[in-house]
Amino acid sequence: MNDVNIVINEKHYTFPGNITILEACNRSGIAIPTLCYLQGVSDEGSCGICVVKVEKSRTFDRACNTIIFEGMKITTESEAIYKARKMNLELALAHHPLDCMTCDKDGDCTLQDLAYQYGVKKSRFLTEEDQISTLKENAWKDNPFILFDEQKCVLCRRCVNACMNTAQVEAIAIANRGHLSKVSTPFDLPLESTTCQFCAACVQACPVGALIEKTRVGKGKLKDFTKTDTTCAYCGVGCNLSIYKDSADNLIMAKGVIGDPTLNNGRTCVKGRYGHEYTQHPDRLTTPLIRKNGVLEPASWEEALDYTAKRLSEIKEKYGSDSIGVLGSSRCSNEDNYAIMKFARATIGTNNIDNCARLCHSSTVAGLAKSFGAGAATNSYSDFSASDVFFDIGSNTTETHPVIAQIMKEHLRKSDCTLIVCDPRKTDITKHAKIHIQHTPGTDVALLNGIMKIILDEQLENTKFIEEHVENFDAFKQKISEYPLEKVAEITGVKAELIKEAALIIGKAKNMMTFYSMGITQHSTGVDNVLSIANLSLLTGNLGKPGAGIMALRGQANVQGACDMGALPNVYSGYQSVTDPAVKEKFEAEWKVTLSDKIGLQATLFGEKGLTGELKAVYIMGENPLMTDADITAVREGFDKIEFIAVQNIFMCETVAVADVVFPSTSAYEKYGTFVNTERRVQLLRPVRKHHPNVMDDWKIVSRLSQKMGYDLGFDSVQDVNREINKMTPSYGGISMERLEKSGLQWPCPTLEHPGTPILHKEGVTKRPNQKGLLHAIDFKPAQELPDSDYPFILTTGRILYHFHSGNETRRTSVLNEFVPKNYVEINPLDAKELGIQANDLVIVTTRRGKLELNAKISERPKKGVVFIPFHFSEAPANILTNAALDPVAKIPEFKVAACHIQKK
Amino acid sequence: MKIYRIHALICAGGQCISAGGDSFESALKKELQAADLAEEIQIVETGCMGSCEMGPMMVIYPEGVVYVRLKPEDAEIITKEHFLKGRPVEHLMWRKEEGAFPRLEEVPFFAHQTKLVLRNCGLINPENIEEYIARDGYQGLAKAIADKDPKLVIDEIKKSGLRGRGGAGFPTGRKWETAYLQTSDIKYVVCNADEGDPGAYMDRSVLEGDPHSVIEGMAIAAYAIGAQKGYVYVRAEYPLAIKRLTHAIKQAKQSGVLGQQILGSDFSFDLEIRVGAGAFVCGEETALLNSIEGNRGEPKKKPPFPAEKGLFGKPTVINNVETFANIPVIMTKGADFFQTIGVPNNTGTKVFSLAGKVNTTGLIEVPLGISLRKIIFDIGGGIPHNKQFKGALTGGPSGGVIPATHIDTPIDYESLNSLGSMMGSGGLIVMDEDSCMVDIAKFFLKFTVDESCGKCTPCREGTKQMLNILEKITSGQGEEGDIERLEELGNTIKQTSLCNLGQSAPNPVLSTIRWFRNEYESHIRDKKCLCNVCTLSSPVKEVKKHARKKISH
Ligand SMILES: Cc1cc2nc3c(=O)[nH]c(=O)nc-3n(C[C@H](O)[C@H](O)[C@H](O)COP(=O)(O)O)c2cc1C
Ligand code: SF4
Ligand code: SF4
Ligand code: SF4
Ligand code: FES
Fold first, then answer.
1. Percent of chain A whose pLDDT exceeds 90
2. Can you give the pTM of this predicted structure?
3. Of A213, A263, A427, B99, which residue is least crowded by CB atoms under 10 Å?
4. What's the whole-number mean pLDDT along residues B63-91?
């Protein structure tokens, strides 16, 4: 780009072209007042506050959206400019009440700052009746999240642009024209009846107190709060948040951190924004508990630790190390997980350690490792913009990875990128798709094979990539030939033309990014599904380039980290195999113990092994299997047989309720440590609030317990744990906490000098020993339980935007719980009609394992014959119904397909 | 072609039709049938003849006899006397002064005009492409394609000095050149026929009376810049224009002057009509393009200018109807000829809609540089009832007033600007001694307040505040400092509004303050309206309708 020479206030400057006057002034240290401008979000130039004089220009020009040109001469201050700015400010204030004293935004308001700067005490145009605000009823009235005080609005349009450009929603717009303009919803519908996702991007964008979180009203002004930047503790997107607390340590509000365009850059979803209230909920566990005479009773830390150490030691002594099972947690930090992983292996001496990744992405870890030698998402958010096709399969992206969905939608809107979605339900993201393939749950392999057959038939495969980077092509091709289009259409219940159209788009894509989530993994064929996805990317050469790869969207905030840390039965941290003698030797040398080389038990087998008596004790850190496993009635039976259960948790959840010892721990917003997001980015977690004096960090509880059991984990601080992670984990060698203070790092990052790895398998060179990608010949196998005359419907389960997993946090966040207070079942209108079911009717859903009473939600989202139930609600837990049939390799249950029966109560 | 003894040109412009022109026409047809004259006398429905106030009109050739204000019952006598006996019916003819019945060319209203844009209006049947072609139609396009490379076409337009007639007067050739120089496979040509100025209707008249001249102008533009597709954005209130244009596009395609491989060349150009929703600001070019794209019709910041990044982000030439109608003339008669009309830097003609306190109102086309006096007194026949001329408002609702002291000012872009007014789309409203200038300013400001899109604060809020002050002043509640406040507001709005609507909205107020400050002062200090228009010291009253409303259809 050519340099541009300009003159500002008679001084010469040179800039690279294409920047605005405002940017040029910022870089030169010249202050320009702005009101309506918000970088990257809003530059419509509505307020006219930033005006400057450009020589030869007939009018003043807006610094915020005028691009500099060669020879431009700019004056930023003069009496005329000052007067114009002040006049526009007075006009902006023409209806703005004199409310600063009672306004929540006092001290954090651009308008107030400008009024101060320009000495506007009261606008000349402000009328008597406008001086004090009277809250008008509007479309924002009933929702629990956002308040809109119209009279404070200066019509800067930052909210409207934030909704469009940040949230990618367009739920709000400017209604009417001229001086009757106002921010509104379509037809003034209540906000909750629009497409609004309550991400509150609009609130964050509002420069004044017009749009504000209802949850912060009356709780203080900016000066009363302390802000801490940390990583969101919900989903695997890993948004960076600034969280504000008051002097009593209550978390009040959250904002998306702005500044790094490769991250969420200001974005959040409704959970990140509002879902922090649980940390100060009275239900928090604040004392260790020991079960005495069948009842959990408060105990001291010493008592609880001693007792647990004693019981575990006894059981180990009596039944052997492998009679004890341990669970790490995707909700806890890397350091917590490393500590418990070491505890299981070194202190107890077993590889029976797992985490809830078993329930979400164990198929990915196993499948992608087979195909590419590494079981993680390959690319980064920042390179989505290089894709010309997005292939999104089995992911309700808008609800489960909301900010990734926003990034995807932004690219779709700004480019010619085509989105193809395969999902049995018409979820929000399907509205942005060119093609939506609504296949029958559990038919993914057939669908993918069918697509690949068309690609081969049309010779759209990437022959060069296959020759150079792929093996086993012939066997694969042979298998694919068994999936002609008609057969695939029949199996999947999708029109043949639609599959063909999608296949052609995929085959012709220059850079295709595949996105998938639990719709792919949670099947008894989960690994096969993942292998088929890997096949497709190898066949088309979509691997190892910006915009081309596989984004396995990880569910929990640190599910990637829990796996990276070796909270898995077959690997130490960094996926170093427990069966590899060299690895074993290395860890034995460091830990000075003898380690087991026998692969341990998967979490989904704990119940079963409890029932058979092979498992005598379990130690669970921050997980809730009695809510999140499939067929929880059966799991509970198994747990009932287990002699001793000890747990670390922040709430009295279902699993805690059956424990013998309970240790209260710190929540993610109270601890220091690291989390890893779904693009393998390790990020810092900073304590936002002080924890209760009687709760302890998870790694510390484990360390204390280990000590009592006679083995010192060697950790006195989080940093100690982190240093050992760096030392023992090649891919984490350079990821020190000091470096993370500056910014996140994507593994592999072997040395302190290494910049991290945004894209895995660069240029198609995989992590397998021979560096090639392995194609697999995969047969379609139907789900384990198919509809029949007794159970004629397919039940599929999953998440919704407003709640998270077993609901312990979101159900204790009043706004979220008020907004979606109870469980429901989504039924297609055609099915509802046949069954005589109307909206909100109470219905009974039965499977071979149990039954639930739920309100019906008649919805076009599931296709006919399919019903959907969220699994967040402990009063009506979907997992009473689900099928515990496991994938033979990954041992992941088939949460996504069960046969059920429905009837009106 | 069949030879007729007499051609009866009946004005089928919107206003003549609504004044009863079509009932007269059917009455006449019946009479001719009865008198067995249908084979001898051809009735031609033409576009607007300009002097709408005199309608329904009919001109009889070869004599050039002009009949005005015709009623159906007049058909009988005209047939019997004029057509059968050759005796024009005097009491129905245009009368200059007692006893003088001028031929069309001699009517002062027409005699002082120079018709380039309106060359065919009132002469040909707009629904018949043959008649357009017979008057050199599509010659310009043929010439452009046959022997000129696109660059030469642009040079010719540049040389002609033609400036955009949509208001701003930007040199058309330069605009085309910018679009021509952009590298893009896709480019567009858009005709701005939104005609939002409530007092102006020349664009409508051209579309209704001579649609092919616009089509041809657009095709030439497309050829010059390399566009394949064009849009005409017409306001919904112009159904007749839409009908005639639709018909003309169809005919043009059938005749091979539009569509694929025009005139056998490899140049193709397709044209589509888009009907606008009618907001004034939709006439602003970026808002108009937004509207075609299906977005809210709101202006966008410039640059980038449409010629660089316009419709759907592609280089786009957007010109006014009148601008396009000039193009075929320049191409057939040459830039040199065009330059002989008007004055240097303001070449060619401009069509005005002459309205207000003047004897003959209507559409007039005059060479640029003509004086205001000539327009009002020679063409318009002076002020009715021998009242004093007080001022004229040019530029429509966002223009300014030119006071009587400047009646000899030449009408050109620069002179009007220097007087605080502007050319605009060509509205010209004449005011006499009875017109209160504060009231006039208030009337026009009210229009812009209602039409502001609301996007930017100075225009949305500032104009409303100015209007509040004017309402105070005209109702007797004005206070010292109000004039200064108006000036301060006006200057900020002019300097900092996002688009030209806001940037020019204060003009009527600022220019009336400039020339008639005393009237403001007497409202404020003496609580007195010098023209007895405003009722002071009483609650704000209904605004008196001074300017002509858009003539109904
Ligand atoms: C508020 C506003 C309304 C306008 N309305 C019209 C209109 O109705 N017709 C028109 O041709 N130009 C209108 N313009 C001018 C156009 O923006 C643009 O300058 C014109 O279409 C360019 O064509 P020209 O170069 O041929 O004049 C308007 C401008 C503004 C600011
Ligand atoms: S909360 Fe989010 S989706 Fe809803 S209006 Fe605001 S920005 Fe748009
Ligand atoms: S609500 Fe806030 S962000 Fe939206 S237009 Fe009003 S002041 Fe601007
Ligand atoms: S000047 Fe007026 S019409 Fe133009 S953008 Fe601003 S508010 Fe809209
Ligand atoms: S900050 Fe530039 S116009 Fe508002």
1. 72
2. 0.89
3. B99
4. 88
Q: Answer whether A155 sits within 8 Å of B464, measured CB to CB.
A: no
B550 has a pLDDT exceeding 80: no
Tell whether the torsion through CA atoms of A317, A322, A323 and A326 is positive or negative: positive
Mapped onto helix, strand or coil, the DSSP state of residue A21 is helix
Ligand 2 center from residue B9 Cα (angstroms): 62
Whether residues A45 and B456 touch (CB distance < 8 A) is answered with yes
User: Checking DSSP bridges between strand A146-148 and strand A173-175, what pairing results, if any?
Assistant: unpaired
Decide if A882 contacts A628 (C-beta within 8 A).
Answer: no
Mark yes or no for CB contact B453/A94 under 8 Å.
Answer: no
Lowest mean pLDDT among A54-63, A728-737, B98-107: B98-107
pLDDT tier, A386 (very low <50, low <70, confident <90, very high otherwise): very high
pLDDT in tens, B144-170: 998 778 999 999 999 999 999 998 899
Is domain B437-526 classified as CATH 3.30.230.10? no
CA distance to partner chain B, nearest, from residue A47 (Å): 5
Q: How far is the CA of B164 from the centre of ligand 1 (A)?
A: 9
CATH number assigned to the domain with residue range B6-106, chosen from the 4 options 3.40.30.10, 2.60.40.1080, 3.40.50.10490, 3.40.366.10: 3.40.30.10
| Cβ distance of B452 and A177 shorter than 8 Å | yes
A30-68 pLDDT, tens per residue? 999 999 999 999 999 999 999 999 999 999 999 999 999
| CB nearest B457 (choices: A48, A59, A80) | A48
Residue with tokens 């717009």: A173
What single DSSP character describes residue A428?
G
Contact call for A178 and B454, based on CB within 8 A? yes
CA distances (Å), A623 to each of A230, A268, A311, A354, A569, in order?
Answer: 22, 25, 21, 11, 16
All residues at 6 or more sequence positions from B477 whose CB lies less than 8 Å from its CB, including other chains: none
Express each pLDDT in B345-363 by its tens digit.
999 999 999 999 998 888 9
Measure in Å the smallest separation between the Cα of A326 and chain B Cα atoms. Answer: 58
Q: What's the Cα-to-Cα distance from A629 to each of A323, A360, A621, rounded to whole Å?
A: 20, 10, 15
Q: Which residue of B has its CA nearest to A95?
A: B461
Q: How far does the CA of residue B414 sit from the closest CA of chain A (Å)?
A: 14
A/B interface, count of CB pairs below 8 Å: 95
Contact B488 A62 (CB under 8 A): no
Q: A586: helix, coil or strand? A: helix
Q: Which ligand gives the minimal distance to the CA of B500?
A: 1
Task: Report the topology of domain B343-432.
Answer: Ubiquitin-like (UB roll) (3.10.20)
Say how many Å lie between the CA of residue B309 and the centre of ligand 4: 20
With b meaning 16 or more CB within 10 Å and e meaning fewer, what string describes A117-138? ebebeebebbeeebeebeeeeb
| Closest alpha carbon within chain B to A53 | B495
pLDDT above 60 (res B548): no
Residue A45 Cβ inside 6 Å of ligand 5? The answer reads: yes
Domain membership of residue A171 as a residue range: 100-277
Show the tokens assigned to A10: 């008679």
Cα separation values, B526 from B205, B330, B477, Å: 46, 56, 11
Model ipTM value: 0.85
Q: Whose CA is nearest to atom 6 of ligand 4?
A: B456
pLDDT at B544: 46
User: Quick one: how many helices (H) and strands (E) in chain A?
Assistant: 29, 39
A204 and A352 fall within a common domain: no
pLDDT 10s digits, B452-497? 999 999 999 999 999 999 999 999 999 999 999 999 999 999 999 9
Q: Does B303 touch chain A (CB under 8 A)?
A: yes
Identify the band that residue B246 occupies on the pLDDT scale cut at 50, 70 and 90: very high
